[in-house]
Amino acid sequence: MKPFPSVALLAVSALFWRSGAFLHQTMTIRRSLSSLPPAASVDQDVADWLDTVAQKLRLQVYDLDTGVYGLESKDPDYGIEVIRTFLHISDEDDSLGLELTEVAHGRSDHRGLVLVSAILEEEVAKNKPIHVGDTIVGVFVGENFKESTTDMDYDDTVDVLSRAKEYAKSVGGSTISLELNRLVKRATIHVLVEDETGHDAVKFDAKAGDNLRSLLMHHHASLYGNGKAALHRLDQPTLTNDCGGEGICGTCLVKINEGMSHLNAIGPQEYSILQGRPESWRASCKTVVGADNEEGSTLRIRLHPWIPSEADARLQM
Q1: Is residue 249 classed exposed, middle or buried when 0-12, 13-18 and 19+ CB atoms within 10 A define those classes?
Q2: Which uninterrupted H or E stretch holds 180?
Q3: DSSP codes joined into one string, 68-90
Q4: Are strands 188-194 and 298-303 parallel, antiparallel or unpaired?
Q5: What are the residue ranges spanned by the domains of the chain?
Q6: Is 176:164 a contact under the CB 8 Å cutoff?
Q7: Rounded to an integer, what distance in angstroms lies between the CA atom of residue 140 and that of residue 152?
Q8: Residues 75, 209 contacting (CB under 8 angstroms)
Q9: Residue 275 to residue 149: CA distance in whole angstroms
Q10: 2Fe-2S ferredoxin-type domain: from which residue to which, for each copy (predicted)?
Q11: Which CATH architecture has domain 188-316?
């Protein structure tokens, strides 16, 4: 499997707890994956940061029937950054170069929150985007070994990593791939909304990871318009109402005049909506602002891009 250099910021979403799945914080216990003997306690600065992360994270149920869990931030000023990377393995050294600390655990169900508490090998710290406070949520080797570790306690996490390493060796591999979640401060994004006259209609600040359509609706921007500004639905061409942000009608289109590089990549559903449209257009219901989490970036958009602007009209004269 190739290493994953990409990152993405996840917006804060609603929480649904599964009965019995609560985690409670424990005294920080240092349990090492390295070949070095564990020290008596974690460095105080590291312990404070691990405590902060543990306090701000909570477990979310994505699918109750299948037991699929994910992490989200309790604090709306923070979000979850998804990191994909890899670690080298060798026959000579059992260490993966990481130290893990269990900071919370389930009462009786082997669930837990395990964080990276130290980077023990310089190569890992220098070449791989792994930080103290990260939590490993997925372990992969090729296409045949894929395991989620989102809600596992220390022992089960170590077991998955050990099995991944042994599997990689058995198939002649030299790396195991990891997906990590990282608690990050959400950057502030400046959003300027223009109408078809080219004048600023709305200005507001947003947090990285926010959905653009939700922002425009919250700040009362005339996203859909009426009369000549109304756009017919792609799925029901005789209608001009919207689908409520489900990504099927194509009526919430906007033009990005500035800041396209700070948005999320276009996915398959949005791509189908945008076929035949200018490259500067986006479907606001599928657009995430500040996907790169760059503080102070600016997003300038234009509403109703299918209506010629006054500037366009002057150019055609």
Answers
A1: buried
A2: strand 175-185
A3: EEEEEESSTTEEEEEEEEEEE--
A4: parallel
A5: 7-184, 188-316
A6: yes
A7: 16
A8: no
A9: 38
A10: 237-288
A11: Roll (3.10)
Length of the chain: 317
Candidates 219, 205, 188; CA nearest to 294 is 188
What's at 309, amino acid-wise?
Answer: S
CA distance 309 to 143: 50
pTM over cut 0.85? no
Distance of CA 200 to the CA centre of its chain: 30
Annotation: CATH topology of 7-184? Pdz3 Domain (2.30.42)
pLDDT tens readout for residues 266-290: 999 999 999 999 999 999 999 999 9
Tokens of 255: 């033009």
Name 148's bridge partners: 138
13 and 73 Cβ atoms separated by less than 8 Å: no
Paired tokens of 20: 């019995």
* Whole-number Å distance between alpha carbons of 100 and 34: 9
